[in-house]
Write a structure and sequence with these properties.
The structure is a homodimer of 339-residue chains. With 339 residues, chain A is α/β, with parallel strands linked by helices. Helices cover 40% and strands 18% of the residues of chain A. The first copy, chain A, has two domains: 2-227, Type I PLP-dependent aspartate aminotransferase-like (Major domain) (Aspartate Aminotransferase, domain 2), CATH 3.40.640.10; 228-332, Aspartate Aminotransferase, domain 1 (Alpha-Beta Complex), CATH 3.90.1150.10. In chain A, α3 (60-68) links the parallel β2 and β3 (73-76). In chain A, α1 packs across α8 and α4 (86-94) packs parallel to α5 (118-127). Chain A is globular, with a radius of gyration of 21 Å. At the A-B interface, α2, α3 and β12 of A face α2, α3 and β12 of B.
């Protein structure tokens, strides 16, 4: 088995997210979804009648969890940036004051890479009269949970704040060759969840029971090879390259948005499905996105940009490009009305 | 991606379990537990107020699922063999006639390798007045789901019978180097479960969302390299070697049991925890088990037997070995009273 590597990886993340070795419990999951399923289940076990609040731009696994776990779920509106709208959150909390709150906070939404303002979420909860023993926060850090700590001006994800769990994917920024993730929660919470499973001579508090033994080795190796400074450099490179992509798109007259703490560039959905497939672009409605990871170089971005601009000139010979102001804000839209 | 391999593996299992290509839906899971979580969730979505019935020797993931999904769960007694006790099942069904039944049927229990009698379970349901639109059967074939089809006298797991889903592990008998499994259900059921997830351009009906891309390749390779006949031979070898182990244990005066359709040998728990750890024996109460897989040769069994017999002679110099008749039946017990 590779348990010592798993513990090493977890300790690394516990330090990153500021929780003492004896106070945390965690494991290497099979993917980001398992982290969300786990965090939300821990929240439900802590507050069996709690209501799950999540912004509508949360990952679909959050809503899947609500359905699986038979939890009441309230969708909260988002700002144009993709962040949770705390005014709407406040209104919905006040309408449900009688029940504890379980909140999914996005550290990087799937589509726009938006980072919910954790501090404002906590302030909103407390402002609505939810004391710390009446709410549970799960931070879905699928992608940016690992990048954010290396961005100086980013709000901090830390167990010094009243959060219950954080999860992050291991096959994205860290580049593990199989889907995996890291899930960390407080020891006090997990005791509610685990049950004795004698034949394994251990208490199972995971979702999946079985774990991939290779994943911790890959994670451990990468964390140690790159180190804290290596990650910091890669994060800077990703953010720089993402800015380059956004600027070049805008310079070519294409609507594009990049959130401040993000390396996810959102832009006008290409009209050619072959182009979308070839570049494996994830699309939603009128927008597509590119997540700029360490493997994406300026050269690769240039190839992409050239191909996009060349193809696009044939898509809009007779008609106008669509307005995507509703998706990315009118200051980012390049349609005839807003450009 | 490795989707074509995944489809190839699923088609192989669909043929094995007798369901037409267009009638089934399935995927390669991350482990046996994910198969159970999926099968039971499908059952719950088909019968939202259904009661989950499972024998008390079912895998713990079944009871974990009941808790996660907030389902009413009724534990059914077992026979000494580890099989579900259909007399008790009948009594419990009759006591809950007003609600549909969701049943976990074990094709090889975790500890004793017992195979629930699927035909008798169906008969019992129908005998209690549960028509086919009032029950859902999930077959947990973690280990033996793949071995059973190759045992001539074994009752058949088949979608020609009124079952809803079957799952099997891929890292046990097939020997895939990472935890994985196969889950197959009826297309008609899964439509209830799936929901549109636009940004992936697909409908997600899995538990985990992400899947390991290597697992289907390993599975496909092994299925094709060994083929149906190769598996049949390996199953015969495992059953033969398991009989050898059981016979040698009994010959050495050690209580031991082997179910007819199984390669899991259950015997008196060794008294030395170092011995247990070194041989990675799974123990429960007074019993331990050895699951005889294709990698376990007669030579390896002899090394194990010699070491066990030699060590055991030092454990019981002054006291008698324990009676394990309650676990494995008095005909299999070798304590002073029963030998």
């Amino acid at each position: 088995h590779s348990r010592q590597f798993e513990v090493g990886v977890l300790d690394w993340f516990a330090r990153l997210w500021e929780i003492e070795k004896n106070d945390y419990w965690g494991y290497i999951t099979n993917c980001g979804t398992e982290g969300n399923l786990h965090g939300i289940l821990v929240g439900r076990e802590v507050f069996p009648d709690g209501i799950l609040y999540a912004s509508r731009e949360s990952h679909y696994s959050v809503f899947k969890a609500a359905r699986m776990y038979r939890m009441e779920c309230v969708k909260v509106d988002t700002l144009i940036s993709g962040e949770i709208d705390c005014a709407d959150f406040r209104a919905k909390l006040l309408a449900n004051k009688s029940k504890p709150a379980i909140i999914n906070v996005n550290i990087g939404t799937t589509v726009k890479g938006a980072v919910d303002d954790l501090d404002l979420v906590i302030q909103t909860l407390e402002g609505c009269g939810f004391s710390r023993d009446r709410f549970y926060i799960h931070c879905d850090g699928a992608l940016f949970g690992l990048m954010m700590p290396f961005v100086k001006r980013a709000p901090k994800v830390s167990f010094k704040k009243p959060i219950g769990s954080v999860s992050v994917s291991g096959h994205k920024f860290v580049g593990c060759p199989m889907p995996c993730g890291v899930q960390i929660t407080r020891m006090e919470h997990v005791n509610a969840l685990s049950s004795n499973v004698e034949y394994l001579a251990s208490r199972d508090a995971t979702i999946m029971g079985s774990r991939n033994g290779h994943a911790p080795i890959f994670l451990w190796y990468t964390l140690n090879r790159k180190g804290y400074n290596g990650f910091a450099k890669e994060v800077q490179k990703c953010l720089r390259n993402a800015h380059y992509l956004k600027d070049q798109l805008r310079a070519a007259g294409i609507g594009a948005m990049l959130n401040e703490l993000s390396s996810t560039v959102v832009f006008e959905r290409p009209r050619d499905e072959d182009f979308v497939r070839r570049w494996q672009l994830a699309c939603e409605g009128n927008i597509a996105h590119v997540v700029v990871m360490p493997s994406v170089s300026i050269e690769k971005l240039d190839v992409f940009l050239n191909e996009l601009v060349k193809n696009r000139s044939t898509w809009y010979q007779e008609k106008q490009p669509p307005c995507i102001a509703a998706d990315i804000g009118k200051e980012n839209c390049a349609c005839p009305l807003h450009k």
